[in-house]
Design goal:
This protein is mainly α and 625 residues long. The protein is built from 30 helices and no strands. It is globular, with a radius of gyration of 26 Å.
Length: 625
Amino acid sequence: MLQLEFSYRGIVRMAVTLIALAMAIYHMWAIAFGTPEAVWFRGTHLLFALVLLFLIYRRSGEPTDAPAPLDYLLLLLGAAPILYLFVNYDYIINRIFYVDDLTLMDKIMGVLMTAIVLEATRRVIGWALPITAMVFLVYGLVIARLEPQQMLDQLYMTTEGIFGIPLSVSAAYVLIFVLFGSFMERTGTGQLFMDFAMSLTGRYAGGPGKVSCVSSALFGTISGSAVANVMVDGPITIPLMKRSGFPPHFAAGVEAVASTGGQIMPPIMGAAAFVMAEFIGVSYGQVVIWATIPAVLYYVACFSAVHFEAKRRGIVGVPRAELPKLGHVMRERGHLFLPVVAILVVMYSGYSAPLSALAGVLACFPVAALRKSTRHYVTFVNIVAACVDGAKNALPVALACAAAGVVIGVVTLSGLGIVFTQYVVNLSQNYLLLALVFTMIAGIVLGMGMPTTPAYIIMTALLVPAIVKFGVPVPAAHMFAFYFAILSAITPPVALAVYAAAGIAKSDLWTTGLAAVRIAATSFIVPFMFVYEPALLMIGDWPTIIWSSTTAAVGVTLFAAGLHGYFLTHSQYWQSAGLVVAGLLLIDPGFVTDLIGAALAVVILGSQFFARRNLRLKTAGQSSD
């Protein structure tokens, strides 16, 4: 990768490598020695992102190593407004926003910055977010009748628009955690996760499907991207599931659901979790605590769906002789878990999340050097490649955050958030459940065309205040929006994680999407429950938290058993319906509903126990004859 190649493509590749390396080093330096002032730090972050973007992605959105003249022109036009802010920094910070008139050059640079950010975002994540931003701009100018000068002031000359909180989170949090994921991958941690999952669950019924759940949950903690998770795990787990007897659409659905859950899986979640911490004004560690029980319930649902489907189809696990041994896996590669441990230790010692991630990044290659089995990863070329991968992988989030800043700027300046809150409250006729359903639909629709982070940011601006107005605790309202922004990745008709998994499995998109929804069905219910019972977010006293989480876990399992037609044995229709009802009652917080759900579950459990025993006796009698 570092060999000199004196051709046009070779020079471009070398330039990309050097710029990406500089981007990674700059952010590590800023975290270690203190971040510069907001305009400098966020501006430099966006400058790096724009330069790399126009060198890497062509106009069609496809990657390239041969940029066209137009790409260089856009690169220069994107850099100019940021450099203008740097050169005129004293003027920028000393002027009075919304009072002092913009100069002609201010206006030109503001329009240019907005247009280039939207074009760059289109190239890296598609049309959905840029179109959304343009709709909001039209709303601000035509419907809200904001002055164009005032809008440009908000979007470009302040830290309330493009250079607002979303871009701040991308610069301060996202890049260093994405970099950590790249370093972990480059030191062989992906193989550790796969072998670890295989050794734990591979031999049980539907073993390959359970391997997918465990390995995707582990990989998701360092990835934060559902599609990336599918593309790393899927080529291994999906063929395994197909060979074991699962139909292709179900195998792809399991992988899509398991990979999507990585964004809510502590200790390292998706980028939107860092945005949430910034919006609410709490530490990232607090967000991790809130997310823990919902994440566990998500994977209990996925794991249960695989188990009951495997039992129903008679699918056994992988023979023990073909599986890696847990002791051998831990001896050979177990030390690669240490960087994750380092992050947790530093974070819960009171240091910031970025500093904790930096500690994890710096630990990766020294830890890999501890054992001969992983020492070959420790090379200068591999370290540089890890930095370059991290910078490139951060581009979609950086540009999405900048474009989301356009939406936030218009919403804040026009007061649309207040108007939308009143509209949702009136439309739901003061019923919280209706408001939650509207928010769920909005989250799924927004998430269909854009990544989780901008979908969550827009929901936070427009819908979360309405939920809070109903008396819902702020953490529960934000987690509700966050959860459904994530679930959009597996919800047809536009489900990016499903598309990726179906491509690997060679299965039908709609069949795969419906299978994914059935596997994750409980996950569409859990957010409603933690709104009504914040104990599922670890808010409240410990007896309530333990009781609520335990009954919810049992309920999730029963619900999955009902949907997949198997509990102790094959379920009759009335038993499947009863299991679904019992599961819902146990997930629903409340002592009375828990008792009714438990009683119904016991009835079905008893009927299936006796049915299975009678079947065994009948089979034994026939064999003796």
